[in-house]
C-alpha cells in the first residue's frame, strides 16, 4: 500500500494554481498518473499550514509534498526524484541513465535562467493585482525588500518580450524534431518548460500568445502547448 500524497500549491484570489515550481511537481505526478490531493494555500498561509501537516519542514515553501501522515518533501526536483524511485513502473521522468538526467537538469537550468527572468517581468504586476488585499501586501513588501518597486522589477515590457523570443529559439528548434523536448514522450525538461508557460499564461495571456505561441512563423510552439494540455489538470 502506498502512502497518501498531498501536494501544497500556492493559489491567487481566484484559487488559480500558478507557481512554476509547483507545476513542475504537478506535471510529474500527472505524467505518472499518481493519485494525489492538492492543498491550496496563499502566501500568508504557507508559514503555518505546511509545518502543521509536515513537522519536519522548518522553512516552509511550495511545493511541499506530504507523504503519509506527517513527512514533507520540499522542492520540485526532490519530489520528482522521490516519485521516480517510489513508482518505477510508471512512465519515467528522467530517462534510464544518469547522462539523460543530467541533460534534463541542464535544460531546467536554461529555463530558470534564460526564460523565467523575462517572464517574471511580464507577469509580476498582474501577480500582485490577482492577490487578495492581505496577500497583495505581503507580495509587494517581500518583492520590494531589495530596494526596487514592483514597476522597476517589471522592467521594460518590449525588452522582456524580445529577450524571451530570442531565448526560445533553441527550444523551438528542439521541439521541431519531435512532439516534445524529450521526443515522443514528455519528461522533466518538458515539465520545467510547460510550468513556465503555465505561469506566464495564468497572468498575461495576451503577452503569452505574442511572445511564445506566435513567436515564430510556424505552429510549432502552439502545437506543443496544445499537446501539453493533457498534463495540465
TrEMBL record:
Residues 9-91 form the GST N-terminal domain. GO terms for cellular component: cytoplasm. This is GST N-terminal domain-containing protein.
Amino acid at each position: 500500500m502506498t502512502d497518501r500524497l498531498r501536494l501544497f500549491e500556492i493559489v491567487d484570489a481566484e484559487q488559480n494554481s500558478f507557481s512554476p515550481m509547483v507545476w513542475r511537481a504537478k506535471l510529474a505526478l500527472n505524467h505518472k498518473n499518481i493519485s494525489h490531493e492538492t492543498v491550496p494555500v496563499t502566501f500568508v498561509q504557507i508559514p503555518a499550514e505546511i509545518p502543521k501537516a509536515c513537522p519536519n519542514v522548518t522553512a516552509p515553501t511550495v511545493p511541499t509534498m506530504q507523504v503519509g501522515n506527517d513527512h514533507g518533501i520540499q522542492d520540485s526536483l526532490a519530489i520528482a526524484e522521490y516519485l521516480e524511485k517510489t513508482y518505477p513502473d510508471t512512465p519515467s521522468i528522467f530517462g534510464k541513465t544518469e547522462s539523460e538526467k543530467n541533460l534534463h537538469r541542464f535544460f531546467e537550468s536554461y529555463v530558470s535562467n534564460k526564460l523565467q527572468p523575462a517572464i517574471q517581468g511580464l507577469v509580476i504586476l498582474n501577480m500582485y493585482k490577482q492577490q487578495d488585499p492581505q496577500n497583495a501586501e505581503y507580495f509587494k513588501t517581500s518583492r520590494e525588500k531589495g530596494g526596487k518597486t514592483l514597476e522597476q522589477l517589471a522592467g521594460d515590457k518590449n525588452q522582456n518580450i524580445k529577450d524571451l523570443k530570442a531565448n526560445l529559439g533553441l527550444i523551438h528548434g528542439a521541439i521541431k524534431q519531435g512532439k516534445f523536448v524529450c521526443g515522443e514522450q514528455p519528461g522533466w525538461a518538458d515539465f520545467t518548460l510547460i510550468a513556465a508557460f503555465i505561469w506566464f499564461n495564468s497572468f498575461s495571456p495576451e503577452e503569452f500568445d505574442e511572445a511564445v505561441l506566435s513567436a515564430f512563423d510556424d505552429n510549432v510552439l502552439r502545437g506543443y502547448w496544445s499537446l501539453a494540455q493533457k498534463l495540465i489538470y
